[in-house]
Design brief:
Largest sheet of chain A: 2 strands, antiparallel
Structural class of chain A: mainly alpha
Strand content of chain A: 5-15%
Shape of chain A: elongated
Keywords (chains A, B): DNA-binding, Membrane, Transmembrane, Transmembrane helix
Order of helices and strands of chain A: HHHHHEEH
Protein name (chains A, B): Helix-turn-helix transcriptional regulator
Number of helices of chain A: 6
Pfam family, one (chains A, B): HTH_3
Oligomer: homodimer
Chain lengths: 119, 119
DNA sequence: TATTTGCGCAACTGTGAGTTGCAAAGAAAG
DNA sequence: CTTTCTTTGCAACTCACAGTTGCGCAAATA
């Protein structure tokens, strides 16, 4: 989420003041200030207008990605269904125990740390 | 703003239920329903996660622009599980902080319980 | 038939996006 | 050096709407 930095950088590149940009988006000047300081994010409609004004893609504006869209970590879980012959997303998704199975060590560390703190 | 249609289309392509998708985003099933029916839009953070899960760029997801890279299921990542007899995709890393944001109370409860146990 | 799964709608809640108001730093003019 | 104008950040407030719970209803599935 490089949005805040991207916004500030792109705005200065175009030599726009927060006030000027805000008026184009029909929001208050302070709203833009918040976005740039990471104290909030615009709603989707405003975000799209913002990308247009700054002449960048949504990915560039929000993620700071260069024109080429890079791939990302895939966290999906698919299973092959023999009856349908299709790949289906496994049901259930994430739950607490799935999490514990992967991060039990973090929980242990956390408990230990807090334990030490109290002793 | 093709977001609603895009979401519905992309979700079905991946054979995901609203419920399944919602759990991955740590939101309620009905929230996803609203998005698809144009009765609302996700916040920026959720939108980014959504794009990742659906394997599309933000521009594709929000505006419906054609992606440069054609995305299809890569069979090389599927592994055969002898015990279940199914082809499964290895689980990727999940976002620790997203989880904490949702289940911090559970963690607190857990820590407290264990703390009490030791005292 | 009963049960499960997937989805939509109504009603409610609370958060945070956007607002107004105040203040400060820097530049430019007088 | 003051005055004024521009640009910006922060605090406090409000209310729109993102997200929630709860209910109902099809369509599969057992």
């Amino acid at each position: 989420m490089k949005f805040a930095e991207q916004l500030k950088a792109l705005r200065s590149e175009l030599h726009l003041s927060q006030d000027n940009l805000a008026s184009q988006l029909f929001v208050s000047r302070q709203a833009v200030s918040k976005w740039e300081n990471g104290d909030g994010t615009p709603d989707l409609k405003t975000l799209v207008k913002l990308a247009e004004i700054l002449h960048v893609s949504l990915d560039t504006l929000v993620l700071g990605t260069k024109p080429a869209t890079g791939d990302h970590i895939d966290s999906s879980v698919f299973v092959y269904n023999p009856t349908t012959g299709e790949y289906e997303r496994r049901r259930g998704g994430m739950n607490f125990w799935d999490f514990l199975a992967e991060y039990w060590w973090t929980v242990i560390a956390l408990v230990t740390t807090i334990g030490i703190f109290f002793f």
